[in-house]
Design brief:
α5 (about 105-115) packs parallel to α6 (about 125-140). The protein is α/β, with parallel strands linked by helices. The chain is globular. The protein has a single domain (about 5-240), classed as NAD(P)-binding Rossmann-like Domain (Rossmann fold). The mean pLDDT is about 95. The protein contains 8 helices and 9 strands. A 7-stranded mixed beta sheet has the order 3-2-1-4-5-7-6, sandwiched between helices. Strands 8-9 form a two-stranded antiparallel ribbon. About 40% of the residues lie in helices and about 15% in strands. The longest helix has 18 residues, at about 220-240.
Length: about 240
């Protein structure tokens, strides 16, 4: 196959056959915040040919410190629409489908069943909707890579890739494992997590709306590094 000129440097490293595999791959990215926006961008830059992206949120001023599409000029705009324009500017040939909404379990299951994605990237940052996505994906034996908690972390050297049942020192992963056991879900799937323990001073309590009882402070680079690690792991698996 003829490699597009913008992918020539990638082909020099991984070969034209791997470029072809990526071009024929289909990936679903759910959640386009600090993790998902970077994961999606670098899948697009890596040459993945088909992508579905999901997020029903708009840009808030508090997103600017860590999310790809968040600028003062984009406050109030759809995260999905901003990334749609950006990803197609990276690769105009990208087969991109966007969902500007938070999909309930039934339409999510229908979507996953209909498309049989080569990989699903779970970039959701709340346990309940994350569990819902994972239940659906695992039910149909989809390959999944799931982001654990990037909040409250500052040390890139503590980021790990590992099975959900082998994660350690990550409070978010511990909560998710408990919920999975309660639902009698024991399948294995890949996670990106950090072994760094968050300081209590970085935790802020909320009123419990939007699925969150609390959240940790975040620094610019940690969610991005989680997203880049997810994209890298996905590309590595797709070109095996």
């Amino acid at each position: 196959m003829e490699v597009p000129r913008w992918l020539e440097r990638t082909a020099l490293l991984i070969g034209a056959e791997s470029i072809r595999k990526l071009e024929q791959s289909s990936v679903l990215v759910v959640g386009l915040g600090g993790v998902g926006s970077y994961a999606g961008e670098f899948l697009a830059r890596g040459g993945v040919g088909t992508m579905h992206i999901i997020d029903g949120d708009t840009v808030d001023i508090t997103n600017i410190n860590r999310q790809m599409q968040a600028l003062h000029s984009t406050i109030g705009q759809s995260k999905v629409e901003l990334l749609r324009q950006r990803f197609l500017d990276i690769n105009p040939a990208l087969n991109l489908t966007c969902y500007d909404s938070f999909l309930d379990p039934e339409p999510m299951e229908a979507l996953i069943m209909a498309h049989k994605f080569d990989f699903i990237l779970d970039c959701i940052d709340s346990v309940t909707p994350k569990l819902s996505l994972l239940k659906t994906a695992l039910k149909v034996n989809s390959k999944v890579i799931s982001a654990m908690g990037a909040g409250g972390k500052t040390d890139p050297s503590k980021i790990r890739v590992g099975d959900i049942w082998e994660t350690n020192s990550c409070k978010f992963a511990r909560m998710l494992r408990k919920r999975l056991k309660r639902e009698k879900i024991h399948q294995h799937f890949t996670t990106v997590y950090s072994e760094e323990v968050q300081p209590k001073s970085a935790l802020e309590m909320t009123d419990g709306s939007n699925y969150k009882k609390s959240y940790y402070g975040t620094i610019s680079y940690m969610p991005a590094l989680f997203g880049l690690t997810m994209a890298g792991e996905t590309i590595k698996q797709l070109i095996k």
